[in-house]
Amino acid sequence: MDLLKDLLAAVGVIINGLPQGILALSFGFAAMPTAVAFIIGAVGSGVMGLAAPISFQAETITLAGTMGSNLKERLSMIFYGGLIMALIGLFGMLQAIVEFIGPVITNRFICNSGGYRTGVPGCSRDSEEAS
């Protein structure tokens, strides 16, 4: 049963990662360095026994692709964003942050991060819903 769960999780990560990879290519990010980074990350996760999937972050790709005017700016945005998240993870603060903000804000963030880009009703910037 665990093998089936692992297989479904792997398929989910692939399905999630493909459109984000295409988004990255549309902003001019190179495919080969990204693939090498994913392989290094997958090997590192396997060695450490981590179950967390590795995926693109569409928000980071979009921010770097639209706000970064050159390669140095884009890489700096991605590097510093990753550094901040690594520090949050190393100090074990992620769970505390999620518990602090609560389920309403967490769910709204999840809705907005994907729903806004796809035009899902209730997830748009103009939504009057109070969460």
Automatic annotation (TrEMBL):
TM region positions: 7-29, 35-56, 77-98
Keyword terms of this UniProt record: Membrane, Transmembrane, Transmembrane helix
Protein name per Swiss-Prot or TrEMBL: Uncharacterized protein
Lineage: Bacteria, Bacillati, Bacillota, Clostridia, Koleobacterales
